[in-house]
Write a structure and sequence with these properties.
This protein has 3 helices and 10 strands. The strands form 3 sheets. It has a 5-stranded mixed beta sheet with strand order 3-2-1-5-8, with no helix packed on it. A 3-stranded mixed beta sheet has the order 4-10-9. The chain has 207 residues and is an alpha+beta fold. The radius of gyration is 28 Å and the shape is elongated. The chain folds into 2 domains: 44 residues; 136 residues, Immunoglobulin-like, CATH 2.60.40.420. The termini are far apart. Its main location: mitochondrion. Keywords: Copper, Electron transport, Magnesium, Membrane, Metal-binding, Mitochondrion, Mitochondrion inner membrane, Respiratory chain, Translocase, Transmembrane, Transmembrane helix, Transport.
């Protein structure tokens, strides 16, 4: 759409420039012309509107997600994350960085005690907010970075097409321990995810 408009503008301007170069029209008394100045001011403004409106529509459509399988809510605290699975009752937990040397694996300052478990090959919607200061829910390997602002609910989505463990951190300077609130996502098959949901619900009911 934009390319067609640009081609039309380029052809028109090129034609007018060539005409001015090769004609021999001279008018000694032409000092100003309010009408033509008004026309060549209004026409570019109208052209910009025709370019901007479809772009704005696409911009808002990109934020919409059709039929996500799971909605995950992430809440940033100083200095840990809380997660809620909105589609399932009583599934919510806090995720702290592992500090004990006995539990720590090779990824120092990156692993957590409670990982986020999601099914692969499905659209996942995540809602992000914070309770105290500005945080950022960021996983570079998934191309996801979304700010967590107090009093505001931000939304994004992602799609993981393979099983694995994905690590991230909060890149915002949200306080003294801002580098100690890692994010870990574990992607598993839908069959194992259903088992995990059932086991978690059973454990919660037992508590």
């Amino acid at each position: 759409h934009t390319l067609i408009i640009l081609i039309m503008i380029t052809i028109l301007v090129s034609y007018m420039m060539l005409s001015l170069f090769f004609n021999k029209y001279i008018n000694r008394f032409l000092l100003e012309q309010q009408m033509i100045e008004m026309i060549w001011t209004i026409l570019p403004a109208i052209t910009l509107i025709f370019i901007a409106l479809p772009s704005l529509r696409l911009f808002y459509l990109l934020d919409e997600l059709n039929n996500p399988l799971i909605t995950l809510k992430s809440i940033g605290h100083q200095w840990y994350w809380s997660y809620e699975y909105s589609d399932f009752s009583n599934i919510e937990f806090d995720s702290y960085m592992i500090q004990s040397p006995e539990q720590m694996n090779n990824f120092r300052l990156l692993d957590v005690d409670n990982r986020v478990t999601i099914p692969m090959n499905n659209q996942i919607r995540i809602l992000v907010t914070a309770t105290d200061v500005i945080h950022s829910w960021t996983i570079p390997s998934l191309g996801v970075k979304i700010d967590a602002n107090p009093g505001r609910l931000n939304q994004t989505n992602f799609y993981i097409n393979r099983p694995g463990i994905f690590y991230g951190q909060c890149p915002e300077i949200c306080g003294a321990n801002h580098s100690f609130m890692p994010i870990v996502i574990e992607s598993i098959s839908i069959k194992n995810f259903i088992k995990w949901i059932n086991n978690y619900s059973s454990l919660d009911d037992w508590k």
